[in-house]
């Protein structure tokens, strides 16, 4: 399954990238959708997932 759709619109795009960047470096942001890999840190790992799937649809 592709990751990176932080807002649930089924597309991985600039909105999702902006969401991750807005809280980049934070921790404990549970349930927000931006902690893509679920490790409680918003970091390069999450950013990498969004970027690797950028422009793709989950439909």
Explain the overall architecture:
The protein is mainly α and 59 residues long. The protein has a domain of 40 residues. It has two helices and no strands. The radius of gyration is 10 Å and the shape is globular.
Give the helix level as a range of percent: 25-40%
Mean pLDDT: 92
Tell how many strands the DSSP assignment holds: 0
Q: Any idea what the radius of gyration is?
A: 10 Å
Give the end-to-end Cα distance, rounded to a whole number of Å.
11 Å
Shape: globular
Low-confidence stretches: none
Order of helices and strands: HH
What structural class results from the helix and strand content?
mainly alpha
**Largest beta-sheet details:** none
Percentage of residues in strands = under 5%
Question: In DSSP terms, counting alpha (H) and pi (I) runs of 4 or more, how many helices?
Answer: 2
List the helices and strands and how they pair.
Blueprint: H1 14-22, H2 44-53
Helix pairs in contact: 1-2
Short note summarizing the structure:
The protein is mainly α and 59 residues long. The chain is built from two helices and no strands. 32% of the residues lie in helices and 0% in strands.
């Amino acid at each position: 399954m592709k990751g990176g759709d932080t807002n649930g619109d089924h597309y991985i795009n600039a909105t999702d990238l902006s969401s991750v960047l807005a809280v980049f470096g934070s921790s404990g942001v549970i349930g927000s959708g931006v902690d893509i890999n679920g490790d409680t840190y918003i970091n390069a790992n999450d950013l990498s997932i969004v970027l690797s799937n950028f422009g793709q649809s989950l439909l």
